[in-house]
Amino acid sequence: MPSFLLFVFLNLAVFLVAQAEITVDCGKNSVSVRWIDANTQVDPSLLRLGDCPPTRVSVRPQGSEAVFYAEFWACNIRRLVTTNDITFETEVTSPTLSKTTPVYYPVSCAYERPEDWAPPLYDPLIFHTHGQGDLAFRISLMKDDFSGVATTSTFSLGSTIPIAASVTQQNHQPLIVLLDECLASTTPELGPDSRVYPLITNKGCLLDSKSTNSRFLPRTQLSEIRLSLQAFKFAIGEDVYLHCRLVAWDPRDLDGGKKACQYDRASSRWVLVDDPSQSSLCSCCDTNCQGRKKRGITADSLDLNSVLGPLVIIEN
């Protein structure tokens, strides 16, 4: 959140949900939630704040505890902007269990909106999002030479839009990051009536490379993938948001569902960017790609959705 965002209160309140006690602490850029259940009715490790697991869990004879800490851009925390206020909303939930009433507790932090406020959650140049299992994903608009984050989010029709996506890992085996899907939309949230322009589809196939100069660039490291998009005609002059799904995977276990493919118009075939000798994995790009059931790392840390924008494409 920008430093000029006026913080108007520190909300510290204690509530009872069923037999549990919840403390919500709204900070300037983040929220902390503490869940204490004296009767140990819920496994605290199963609780979620938005889509994030607890930062800390403890189970003792006197009861269980889950503590969450999340910055406002993480955990799928929603932002509601009105004329006078900015409110960040999410909830503490638990899985639906047959013998236990599921947990649902709303969490909200409200702030006064300054007149010169600009959206921090959809920063035009960079978007961070955290996953589970010590993985942190990042996607950014970059300078043309990828030497740093871009200084503009406005592009001329036909020019290059450089994008870098990466994953930072702590305790995992070496992982390769992939862009499973990307599409452009005029809205920061997708709905049934959203206008969309598909860029990457079918589990890693750069569809836009069939008709434009869009392409993946050679990797400098497994944990980063670089994409050079040709600025497209979709929604000229309007705010455009890129909705992408980032995937971290075992680089030794690529298949039809985990890959990075682009179309080589010179040879009229799909090519696997990371190993052209295995381009047969891309043969499904014009039909329906399916991956194997095998999973090389924990299922809940494989992929995350991110939104990059708004960016604007203008005619020359």
Per DSSP, the total helix count is 0
- CATH fold name of the largest domain: Immunoglobulin-like
Structure summary, number of beta strands: 22
Helix/strand class: mainly beta
Helical residues, percent: under 10%
Distance between the termini: 33 Å
What do we call the CATH homologous superfamily of the largest domain? Zona pellucida, ZP-C domain
Instruction: State Rg.
Output: 22 Å
Give the uncertain stretches in residue-range form. 1-18, 128-132, 294-301
Please state the overall shape, judged from the principal axes of the Cα atoms.
globular
Strand content: 35-45%
How would you characterize the largest beta sheet?
A: 8 strands, mixed
- What's the CATH first level of the largest domain? Mainly Beta
Organism: Cirrhinus molitorella
Domain ZP: 25-268
Protein name: ZP domain-containing protein
GO molecular function: acrosin binding
